[in-house]
Amino acid sequence: MGTGSPARCAAIIGTGLIGQGWAIVFARKGWDVRLYDVNAAMLAEARSLILQQLRELETQGLLEDANGIIERVHVAGSLADAVKGASYIQENSPEKVEIKRALFTELDAVAEPDAVIGSSTSSIPASQFTEHLPGRHRCLVAHPVNPPYLIPVVELCPAPWTSPQALNAAREAMTAIGQKPVLVRREIEGFILNRLQSALLHEAFRLAKAGIASAEDIDVTVKDGLGLRWSFMGPFETIDLNAPGGIADYCARYGGLYESIGADQGECVAWDGALVAALEDERRGLLPEEDLAKRRFWRDEKLMRLMRHKQENGDNNG
To answer: 3-hydroxyacyl-CoA dehydrogenase C-terminal domain: which residues (predicted)?
Structure first.
């Protein structure tokens, strides 16, 4: 995966929303992209859906020449055709171990010998579907955040047998296409992002069940409170700046408080029954079901504007 090649090639296996997103990420940075999906109907419409999103990104000023970019995206007639000449392969099949195990068996057999194979799985460690492969050393998880063309973090989580060379090649590829790779040093359920999100969600459900605050007020606390800082700083930098002497000073001042709060957060609240029904009633009162799709487009437009702001102000590395 040398940096000197004029047109690097990526294979995208599975062309649902995540696969389409990956195609955009690679193609907009000059890579040739080959798409393949066992679902012929999904594969047939993938390219037009990618072009539609590219044009929206162009309208928002986040890329130029959508029509030129889509010319780098090709539909392959077979899995073997898709991976031929590809230095990087991104798998996006359903979240089922047996499906991924079978697909990785095929990919390992037909991929170029030095190609790296990443999985978009959000929950399954690579060790569960790559252990049996002759080329297991070049396989790992490369978990994106949806949509990857707007949210650049990619969690790289190697299996115990993933080689340092493959991990470095994956990190180099992600950096080359403008993503922000983070290393999960060992396999753990949920990787990093979902574990952090899980902690916040569990507390949100606890507060709602206890009647401390409404779902809307909890959301406001995040979007107009914590989230404003978190859009350009992480939690450790946040507390590092929130005490005169930095993070050690913050821990000395507030460690006892957070230890006390943590002791009260040990028991998880079940996400079911009357609690979920009440939250569903509140959310549907704020946003009727028929307006969910429209609101998702609104969300993506907000993300585009935020991305543009971060690019223009040079804080996208924050």
So the answer is: 190-252
**Which tens digit of pLDDT belongs to each residue from 141-181?**
999 999 999 999 999 999 999 999 999 999 999 999 999 99
- The identity of residue 182, as a single letter, is V
Per-residue HEC secondary structure of 184-200 comes to CCCCCCCCCHHHHHHHH
Report the relative pairing of strands 88-91 and 116-119 from DSSP bridges: parallel
Strand ranges for the chain from DSSP E: 9-13, 32-36, 73-75, 88-91, 116-119, 139-144, 153-158, 180-183
Q: Find tokens 């995040």 and name the residue.
A: 222
Share of the chain above pLDDT 70, in %: 97
Rounded Cα distance, 107 and 124, in Å? 18
CA angle 115, 129, 146 (to 5 degrees): 75
Of the pLDDT bands very low, low, confident and very high (cuts 50, 70, 90), residue 7 is: low
* pLDDT value for 218: 97
Q: Is the pLDDT of residue 317 over 70?
A: no
Strand ordering across the sheet containing 88-91? 73-75, 32-36, 9-13, 88-91, 116-119, 139-144, 153-158, 180-183
Interval 225-242 mean pLDDT? 93
Is 2:20 a contact under the CB 8 Å cutoff? Answer: no
Q: List the structure tokens of 77.
A: 């007639």
| Cα–Cα distances in angstroms (integers) from residue 199 to residues 17, 195, 214, 268, 294, in the given order | 26, 6, 18, 10, 28
Distance CA 127, CA 265 (A): 31
253: Cβ–Cβ under 8 A, 6 or more apart, which residues? 243
Length of the chain: 318
Amino acid at residue number 269: V
